[in-house]
C-alpha cells in the first residue's frame, strides 16, 4: 500500500495541503528557530541538524504543526531543503510517516527507508540519524505510556495496517470543524492506535473515515474552486461555485454535509481562519496588529474574529503569538558552524539544551 499526500488529496477531494495545517505553530526561514521548536514540541533531549545550503537546493523554509490530545501528540513537519538530523528520541515511541519524500533512518547500525505509506517506528530514548531529501513533508505521532496493565506488542516498520490507520486520521484532519472536534477526533485516534499497539488488529477498522468522496467528481470540483477563489476580504459566492461545479446550491450543501459534516459556509470560514492564523504566525513581526491579519482574510470585526479563532483553534490570536515566543525559547541556544567540507555549503546547527534535564 502506497499512501502519499496526493493520494489523500484525491480520495478526500481536497487540494494538496500541509500536514496538520489547522495547528500550525511555526513557519520560518530560520534554521535555529526550526530546530528549537522541533525539540520543544517533541521533547527530544538533544538535536543537531546539518543543512545543505548550496545553490542547487531551495532556500531554507520549515513549517511545524502540533496538537496534543489524550494518549497522543501529533505533529506535521515540512522542510524545504535537504538535511540530516541527529539526536536522541524522547522517552516515548514515535511513528514517522512521510507524506512526500523518502527519509533514510539509521538506528543502532540498522538502515530503513521510510517513504509515503511506509511508516518508521522510533523507539523511546534511542539515538537516531535521519537523512531528509528536499521538500520533505512528514506526519509524526508520539505515543504516551501504554499503561501498567497493557502488554504492547512491538510495532513493525512498514506495517500497512498501521499506515492505513494513520491515513484515516490524516483524512479527518482536513475537515476539523473546530477545536473541540479536533481534540475529540485526535483523542479517539490515539485510543484506537493504543489498542492496535496492544495487539487489537481490528481496532484500525474503527477509524474508517466518511470523507472518501473521490467518486463525487462535482463535489471534488467545488472544493477545487473554493481553494482557487478563496479571496481576501470578500465573500465567496457559493451559488456560483456550485453552478461552476455542475451542482445546485442545495446539492452542494447536501454532499458537503454528507461527507464532511460541514456546510460550504463553515468550510470556507475554516479555510479563512487557517489562512489568518498562518498570516499571524508568519507576519506578526512585520504587523503586530492582530486585527489586521483577520481583516486580510475577511474578518472585519475584531471581536468576532477573536471569538471565531478561539472556537476553531482553542486559543485566542494573542495566545498564538505568545505561544510562538515560548516555542522559540531555546533558539538562542542553537549554535551554527561550517561543517568543514571543502567547497560545499554545509552548516551544522546544534541545540545545547536538554529538554529532559
The total beta strand count reads: 13
Helix content: 25-40%
| CATH architecture identity of the largest domain | Sandwich
Low-confidence stretches: 1-10, 147-152
**Rg (CA only):** 21 Å
Q: Largest sheet at a glance?
A: 7 strands, antiparallel
Strand content: 15-25%
Q: Multimeric state of these chains? A: single chain
Based on Cα principal axes, name the global outline.
globular
| Main β-sheet, spatial strand arrangement | 8-7-10-5-2-13-12
How many helices? The count is 11
State the fourth-level CATH superfamily of the largest domain. Answer: Jelly Rolls
The CATH topology of the largest domain comes to Jelly Rolls
CATH hierarchy class name of the largest domain: Mainly Beta
Instruction: Write down the domain tally.
Output: 2
Ends: how far apart? 41 Å
Class derived from helix and strand content: alpha+beta
Mean pLDDT: 86
Note the run of SSEs as H and E.
HEHEEEEEEEEEEHHHHHHHHHEE
Summarize this structure briefly.
With 357 residues, the chain is of the alpha+beta class. The chain folds into two domains: 230 residues, Jelly Rolls (Sandwich), CATH 2.60.120; 98 residues, Arc Repressor Mutant, subunit A (Orthogonal Bundle), CATH 1.10.10.60.
Amino acid at each position: 500500500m502506497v499512501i502519499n499526500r496526493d493520494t489523500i488529496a484525491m480520495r478526500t477531494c481536497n487540494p494538496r495541503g500541509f500536514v496538520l495545517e489547522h495547528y500550525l505553530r511555526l513557519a520560518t526561514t530560520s534554521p535555529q528557530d526550526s530546530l528549537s521548536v522541533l525539540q520543544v514540541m517533541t521533547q527530544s533531549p538533544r538535536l543537531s541538524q546539518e543543512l545543505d545550503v548550496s545553490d542547487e537546493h531551495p532556500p531554507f523554509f520549515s513549517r511545524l504543526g502540533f496538537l496534543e490530545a489524550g494518549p497522543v501528540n501529533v505533529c506535521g513537519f515540512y522542510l524545504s531543503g535537504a538535511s540530516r538530523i541527529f539526536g536522541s528520541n524522547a522517552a516515548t515511541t514515535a511513528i514517522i510517516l512521510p507524506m512526500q519524500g523518502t527519509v533514510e533512518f539509521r538506528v543502532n547500525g540498522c538502515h530503513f527507508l521510510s517513504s509515503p505509506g511506509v511508516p518508521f517506528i522510533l523507539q523511546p530514548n534511542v539515538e537516531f540519524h535521519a537523512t531528509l531529501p528536499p521538500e520533505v513533508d512528514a506526519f509524526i505521532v508520539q505515543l504516551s505510556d501504554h499503561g501498567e496493565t497493557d502488554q504492547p506488542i512491538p510495532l513493525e516498520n512498514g506495517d500497512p495496517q498501521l499506515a492505513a490507520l494513520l491515513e484515516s486520521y490524516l483524512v479527518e484532519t482536513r475537515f476539523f470543524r473546530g477545536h473541540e472536534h479536533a481534540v475529540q477526533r485526535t483523542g479517539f485516534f490515539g485510543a484506537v492506535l493504543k489498542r492496535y499497539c496492544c495487539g487489537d488488529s481490528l481496532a484500525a477498522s474503527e477509524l474508517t473515515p466518511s470523507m472518501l468522496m473521490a467518486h463525487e467528481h462535482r463535489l471534488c470540483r467545488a472544493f477545487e474552486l473554493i481553494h482557487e477563489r478563496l479571496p481576501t476580504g470578500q465573500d465567496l459566492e457559493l451559488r456560483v461555485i456550485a453552478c461552476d461545479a455542475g451542482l445546485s446550491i442545495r446539492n452542494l450543501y447536501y454532499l458537503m454535509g454528507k461527507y464532511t459534516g460541514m456546510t460550504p459556509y463553515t468550510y470556507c470560514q475554516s479555510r479563512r481562519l487557517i489562512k489568518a492564523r498562518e498570516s499571524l504566525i508568519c507576519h506578526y513581526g512585520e504587523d503586530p496588529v492582530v486585527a489586521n491579519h483577520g481583516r486580510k482574510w475577511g474578518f472585519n470585526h475584531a471581536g468576532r474574529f477573536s471569538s471565531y479563532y478561539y472556537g476553531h483553534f482553542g486559543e485566542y490570536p494573542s495566545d498564538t503569538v505568545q505561544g510562538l515566543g515560548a516555542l522559540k525559547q531555546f533558539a538562542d541556544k542553537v549554535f551554527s558552524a561550517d561543517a568543514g567540507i571543502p567547497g560545499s555549503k554545509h552548516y551544522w546547527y546544534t541545540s545545547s539544551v536538554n529538554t529532559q534535564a
